[in-house]
Please model this.
Amino acid sequence: MEDVSVRGPDSALPGESFIVRVTASLRNLGPASAVLVDTTFTFSAPGCEVTPFAPVIVEDTNLPQDVGVSIGRGWLVTCAQAGTATSTADVDIVIDASQAITDPDTTNNSGTGSDSTIVGP
Model:
């Protein structure tokens, strides 16, 4: 994984829903010429309501060797109280179970990103 980007608005009003987008930049470093991966997005914004609440799994993304691929998802966030709302996303990828390929380096299969939104009048 190359990068996890989290982007929400700079500000929002208490009780106002806003969208936070998470983008994961993926890359197959080899040795397989292409591989299918499953990506799990786990999103949180403590003190706020988040939809969807459960982790989101994106299955069967094709990663050709040495070609960057970006995938993303959005969450609806509503914060009732004024303050700084920090949104965080943890992203993990695994080779799809249908593949007869073993990942030679699993240390680069996860990433985290965050962003803050000021909630207030």
Q: What stands out?
A: Strands lie at 3-7, 11-12, 17-26, 34-44, 49-51, 56-64, 69-78, 83-95, 110-119. The CA atoms of residues 36 and 98 lie 8 Å apart.
